[in-house]
């Protein structure tokens, strides 16, 4: 649970599998009382007599089902003394009903990725799972049960209270989130958008259980809810289940309170200063902007993207390139009523906050007189539409996006906003930016009285019903085939080969299939060097990979970004220990061009000094923030304790200060030498999954490496098991409201060990699920931690493995948390897991495995790793077969063989000085 801050196999086969109902029957065979309201581009709305709205977005191309239940209640509906009530109620709903006392546990048992989120305008409960009619029916009936029968019991509230406080405190550790919340509070005089969604501590800690129940009965009703289903499901059968499960709930007789508070036009600059230990300097400015249901909001959002883009935006050029800041950002917050836009800049210590803030606001508030450029608008438009296309093509993302549009007024706004973006003229964008980016509409770091303020226009929410009344959209979405995600089917559908070329070889794994978005996901891996040849190059290797997209011999950084945007592509590059990973995506027709662009970046980087300076500044800020973060400090302590390597070894784990010092020595010449020495053809792999032409992709690979020098031979950098003396680290983090516990140790195992499946299941039952021993004891029963988990990692190469247990918690609860964790580990080793726990865990793990194979990015990444390991999905099939045969005796034997908490090291980081 969290709160928001405010991002086709053929049709007949799909029907035969029961995933998609024949569309021609829908109108004739709707369940009794169910009426169809509207259809836009394959997304349809239905309504039940009791007022429940149902939005269906079927997509047979991905065998995953996502369900979102959205209640139109958020923090803006809370009254005085009730702040945080909507978010607290979200937590309480998972405490169960008389028939389902442990909802989270049931989700975990069934392999559902389920949670809830609360924002200013809505509360949303979602679940994603591998398409399964039984699980879908169960979840829908649970939602109907939870709508009217949730217990909202005093004893559950008492145990959950510490968890909610823990979540509240974790947000207080982030300088950015704290600053943004303080600024929002200053920006609003009357509207509840100025209140934190998680609420005031005093309100949350003193909440009245009777008021919470009244809040639940008032807002959790069918006429205030929208049920959204996306992905693979039988529409008719699902509507029948919905009608049966929810239709029994009577239409409420009460009237919802009318929301009538409007924020007046701001009449002068406002100022906020936050002073806290840790972090790096930041300046920001907030401006009131129109509702997300207004075309002006979309125009303003485009202006925000144009201004804050890196490196083309005016903010970047005026602040970063003039050494007034190390980075800039900007985003608009979509709200049902008039919302906000936030712009900001990150600074290094020693930079002037006053000069940075003055430069920031000068750029923003000059929009009424400065001329915007058409190329900047085209760039922003391409970026926005690329994100929209990817969202529309992904069932899980589409479901979430529709709920956000619903929170803003209507799900059809998802399509309307796209239309407005496509049609936006430069004059529209410039006019809106000039209207709202004015001094009197600003909340920043200070307040200055003004004799003659310039006011922004009046803000009012548009009539959404009128906007969408006759909206038709672009017509039907393109059809897509169903996709069989069984390991054997994935292997059969994947084209695997080795391209033997004059300068090396490329291992290829390509899985072409149709998708609604008509896009493909790809991973290109480059391998070079060994532990000896890479000695002394740890920093250069990482920086070179990070800077590949910052300029080539023929393209500047902005030209690279523009090329990616014009191809509607995405790109990510990382590197280390003799490997470079390039992940990218593009529409079918553009994948070969994206491959060509990737090879240009790999072969021809120039490491411009200006961009290097910016990069080093941003990395320095990241490291300085980490130096006061409990989680980062605890993780570093254990990593360094289990690290015997010398400083020049690429396996060495430096301190944060050492990393800062290393960055000071980075020069373009050294980066160029590293690239010229190590980058080249020789050993590469390529994997792609989605809608693409395999032959064209292969040709692009061949052309991409043609004539490239051969890289030094690759030998994997090994990291064998080492016995480490246990040690406890006490780390003080002043002024941090949240603390972090981390414990763990290593042991000898490789993932082809016969004990591996039982080990992974034992970890799942110990602390990797919502029915695990640690979760139930620490989170559910004691309410001491928002997040408590165990994690086991096992190498596919050397026999080395690690077990970790971690938790976030309030510093005052340290003694209780440590005691309960140790008790849980001891009792688990002594008692073992029951046959029922093992059986339920096996089914859940198998469901999670199936779910992971429904995501194209996951499949592309899996093929990339399997090519290095010499595997196929037959390995997955063998793992799952072994998993199915496990019993409690075998799982408990493996648990006791490998888990030895007495030999673990521990790191506890937090602000404990104020506690006795």
Overview of this protein structure:
This protein has 916 residues and is of the alpha+beta class. 42% of the residues lie in helices and 17% in strands. The protein is built from 33 helices and 24 strands. The strands form 4 sheets. Strands 1-6-7-5-8-4-3-2 form an 8-stranded mixed sheet, sandwiched between helices. Strands 14-15-19-16-18-17 form a 6-stranded mixed sheet, with helices on both faces. A hairpin with a 6-residue loop joins β22 and β23. The longest helix has 19 residues. The radius of gyration is 28 Å and the shape is globular. It starts with a strand and ends in a 6-residue tail after the last strand.
What is the structure about, briefly put?
By secondary structure, the chain is of the alpha+beta class.
Task: Jot down its keywords.
916 residues; 33 helices; eight-stranded mixed sheet; globular; 24 strands; alpha+beta
Strand count, sense and barrel status of the largest sheet are:
8 strands, mixed
The number of helices is 33
Determine the fraction of residues in helical runs and give it as a percent range.
40-55%
* Overall morphology: globular
Strand sequence of the main sheet, in spatial order? 1-6-7-5-8-4-3-2
Strand content: 15-25%
How big is the Rg? 28 Å
Termini gap:
31 Å
Q: How many β strands by DSSP?
A: 24
Overall residue-averaged pLDDT value:
92
**Contiguous runs where pLDDT drops below 50 for at least 5 residues:** 1-27
Alpha-beta classification: alpha+beta
